[in-house]
Amino acid sequence: MRSIRPTAVRLAAIGLVSALALTACGGEDDPKAADKPSTSQGADTGSDDLPEIPADLTDRLKKHGIDLDEWKKGGWKNWDKDQWLREAEDFVNPVIKDLWKPERMEDAKDPVQTIDTKAASSSDAGVTDPEPASVEAQEENKPYWKHAAPVGKIFFDTPEGAAVCSGTVVKDPNNPGKSNLVWTAGHCVHAGAEGGWYRNIAFIPAYNKDGKSPAELQNASAQDIAPYGQFWADWVSTSGEWIDGTTAATAGASYEYDYAVLHVQPEQGGKSLEETIGTALPVDFDAPSATEIGTMGAWGYPQAPPFNGVQMFKCLDKPVRLSLTQSAPTMFRIGCTMTAGSSGGGWFHVKPDKKTYLVSNTSIGPAGSAGWLAGPQLGQGAEQLFLQMSEKYGDK
What we know:
CATH architecture: Beta Barrel
Number of helices: 11
Helix content: 10-25%
Number of strands: 16
Order of helices and strands: HHHHEHEHEEEEHHEHEHEEEEEEEEH
Largest sheet: 6 strands, antiparallel, barrel
Shape: globular
Strand content: 15-25%
Structural class: alpha+beta
Distance between the termini: 47 Å
Radius of gyration: 20 Å
Strand order of the largest sheet: 3-4-5-8-7-6
Oligomer: single chain
């Protein structure tokens, strides 16, 4: 374990904690109880009030020879190459009621994304700063819905089994106050050049709201685990660079473009995600470079040891630059001991208008240790992807 940052940096981080307005609207005791979906996670509610399946979704499945009923009965487990949809326009993710029960969540593993530090630092020494000192991750204050409601956990299925990432509820410019958009990493939704879209992607904001231990969660209520319910992705977009890039970690892959946006719907109907949790964060696509931006904070649910995947943590540090290839933008890098599972979690900074903005997401960490995290700079390409999602699917 590397040493903690000096006191001066830690004081700056404390100031950022008070400035980062990640809180939800609502009372002191419970997160907008009247607005929460009435589902009982992990139990059959007897309700058939499922979201209407869009006609184009059924058509897309049929186009690829997939029967919707068979898919829901387990056909989604077929990861044969000819059944694994990979192109941007081919994403499908039908809601499968009660699929994400507590036991499946517990079995979900992190999609480890690490990179050899020597390969990284030798890619372009001119734009790669010295590795930052490690910053110890701190657990978020409880209850999570009160202090970091936009942050949540993403569950999905891969050929290797159930997997987890982190995500953040972000504002939808075309649907103010009614956003259904979640920001995460590209590797949390798509396997890249060697595969296709992951399946059964669902988002749970403020997961495990009271920060219970894994043992305590064994007897936790559905409301403890998912205080706002489950939200399934009905459309996902990630960068073309991520879809087409290499998946070899030491080759740089396309981590500079490792970002994605989910459009979600409540598993059993209800208000928009933003209305339900009471808040969402704007995205800054024109953030200063790492040398100018000042302190940033990263939030997520790290799972690889020594963490357990069910509790929310955060790190705060001044970013430095990390370059993987000379032809791609440099990445932000901060000292942080969070591990895999925090992938996709939002990085935030406070702009001069005193508002908190999402500026990146956790993409990679070092191979063989846990001392730093890196995330992509969100430029014109990320903004275009985001606006297209908002314009085409935001009001669905």
